[in-house]
Amino acid sequence: MSAALEGVVVLDLSRILAGPWSTQNLADLGADVIKVERPGQGDDTRSWGPPFVNTADGQPQDAAYYFCANRGKRSITLDFTKEAGRKIILDLAAKADILVENYKVGGLKKYGLDYDSLAKVNPGLIFCSITGFGQDGPYAERPGYDALVQAMGGLMSITGEPDGTPGGGPQKVGVAVVDILTGLYATSAILAALFARSKTGKGQHIDVALLDVQVAALANQAGNFLLGGKVPARLGSAHPSIVPYQPFACADGYVMLAIGNDTQFAAFCNAAGSPALAQDARFATNAQRVANRSVLVPMLEECIKLKTIDQWCALGTEQGFPCGPINTIDRVFEDPQVQARNMRVDVPSDTYGSLALVASPMKFSGTPIQYDTPPPTLGQHTQQVLGELGLDAAAIEGLRQSGVV
Question: What is the CA radius of gyration of the chain?
Fold first, then answer.
């Protein structure tokens, strides 16, 4: 079967995570993604280790971090600060459908590689710029990093235990969630622009900023403030609007209860041997449970600690209330549902033998994702891609000698 984006060419000038996450999505969908990297260095994440991934003969090479966001791509090395390298970018952009970059605002303009310049070469080009703070505004010139934006965008103010409690204070999320969400928003915007181009024939400039994404991703917490007027505070792993919706200690560890409605709460109370709790006027509805959180939660804590993780999870399945274990990452990949959904893929590689990678969560009935192209080694496809532009072996060797590739 043809891939969904077969025939679409993406010029990837991005590094680190947000941009590469977006272009990996496009590669998963079948686009030909050409990743442009600095000669001799490459994407910064290639060195963000340990751990490093060993080649088939046991030699450590690139950091594991790099492999999370770069499968399905072709890598070329190119120094576009040199005129010969700049000319190659122009030639590649003339043939590309999409360009993704995450340089500082104005960083590409001095080389004539900004959107306005490249649109003259290719009016149909979809040019996506990913920055910390966007193309305008008082912070536009500032560099942006995930943790910084988690702080500035409000996420750390609602993540972590409450002030004055053990472990209290702001915390960042355990993965670079703003980068990942930005990559996903960028992908959505790119696909929308690709659809618009199918009707108009024209490309456009897409401006995606980490701070904008973080503000948008405040979701119900932002809505609670804007519509309710109250500034949300940290509640640890509890939910501001649903009770009980938090982890609880049990006989041999912790379980997560995610009771989303009154029917589920009644089912839980039955399983706990306390059906009267669901009829108590203080707890009969979610709004009442939220209002009486400080009374209800200690009562539940005493009840839940009497059974094991497996017992509570089994009761949840049998009686219809959401309850699950708090898995470490090794247990995530041992989970039968995760295995049934094929969320680990083993990708063959000439360099590494085989690579265990996380699969895409997108499942297609007609254009399934193919996992046959591993993350490329640095410059692996330079000869191939430049050959497609019409350069012969002697010309490419000359570029190597001059440090352009």
Answer: 25
- Determine phi and psi for 254, rounding to 5 degrees: -135, 145
- For the whole model, what pTM was predicted? 0.95
Catalytic residues: 179
Q: 21: closest CA among 185, 191, 144, 156?
A: 185
Task: Give yes or no on whether 9-216+340-401 and 245-326 have one common fold.
Answer: no
pLDDT at 1: 67
CATH 3.90.180.10 fits 245-326, yes or no: no
Contact, 103 vs 86, CB < 8 A?
no
Best CATH choice for the domain 9-216+340-401 from the list 3.40.190.170, 3.30.428.10, 3.40.50.2300, 3.40.50.10540: 3.40.50.10540
Is the torsion defined by CA of 311, 314, 320, 326 positive or negative?
positive
Residue range 306-319: mean pLDDT, rounded: 97
Q: What is the pLDDT of residue 86?
A: 98
With a cut of 80, say whether residue 67 has pLDDT above it.
Answer: yes
Q: What are the C-alpha distances in Å from 403 to residues 14, 103, 144, 381? A: 20, 21, 30, 16
- Identity of the amino acid at 273: G
